[in-house]
Specification:
Length: 236
């Protein structure tokens, strides 16, 4: 008696199941073997570095911090590259992505300067936390308000104004503490007196008032925000 051969359909189903299982195994293990294989291919060597998001920080500084050359692969681990760039005092955050076949794209979020603080020689550029940034005022195009000291409350206010009302920020020439609990914010056109806890939104309320007074041809000596829900204009 001869054994009957298994049906052809059953054999195909078993082969199909084995192929699916093998493909699944390859997909699951690819993070380990796939990148290692790709890193050895000359096709994926780094040939270009694209820097995105820098304004005050020279792109050459970022490239120098990366420390990559044409022996590096775009499939190399990005974490060490990001760590090296992130140590620059001008950098708040950084991500390194790849654009195949041979370009690294470095996206930088800078610690933006918000004020100039008097120093022994000239001024130092500081961010919203009062840290000195490696920005040379005489070389970089910086037009920032002057503050007498690294007053973090004032610096945070300036950073908030810069974010929410950049046109108003560009018109602030100086911020200093006046009487106890008060600030004097000098705009290019007029000084503004406010409480020390004034918000960026409250400070921006001066803009339509200024525009209305300008249309009337009124000469303004001072704007006062110290009284709740009011903008008082003192005329010359």
């Amino acid at each position: 008696m001869t054994a009957a051969a298994p049906p052809a359909g059953g054999i195909r189903r078993r082969w199909r199941a084995a192929a699916v299982a093998g493909a699944a195994l390859l997909l699951v293990s690819s993070p380990w073997w796939g990148r290692a294989l790709l890193r050895r291919m000359d096709y994926f060597r780094v040939r270009n570095v694209e820097i995105v998001g820098v304004r005050y920080l020279p792109a050459s500084d970022v490239v120098s911090r990366l420390g990559v050359d044409t022996t590096a692969s775009v499939w190399d681990d990005a974490a060490p590259l990001e760590a090296r760039v992130r140590r620059h005092p001008q950098v708040r955050e950084v991500t390194v992505d790849r654009r195949l076949p041979g370009t690294l794209v470095v996206r930088v979020t800078e610690n933006l300067p918000v004020a100039l603080v008097p120093a022994r020689e000239g001024f130092q550029v500081v961010d919203d936390r009062g840290r000195t940034l490696p920005v040379e005022p005489s070389r970089a195009n910086v037009d920032l308000p002057i503050v007498a000291a690294r007053d973090t409350a004032v610096l945070r206010l300036l950073a908030d104004v810069r974010s929410r009302a950049p046109a108003l920020f560009a018109r602030i020439s100086e911020v200093r503490r006046a009487q106890r609990g008060e600030l004097l914010v000098r705009l290019v056109t007029v000084p503004v007196r406010a409480m020390a806890d004034v918000s960026a939104e409250r400070l921006a309320e001066t803009v339509p008032v200024e525009e209305d007074l300008a249309r009337r041809g009124a000469a303004v000596a001072e704007l006062d925000l110290r009284f709740r829900d009011q903008v008082i204009a003192r005329l010359q």
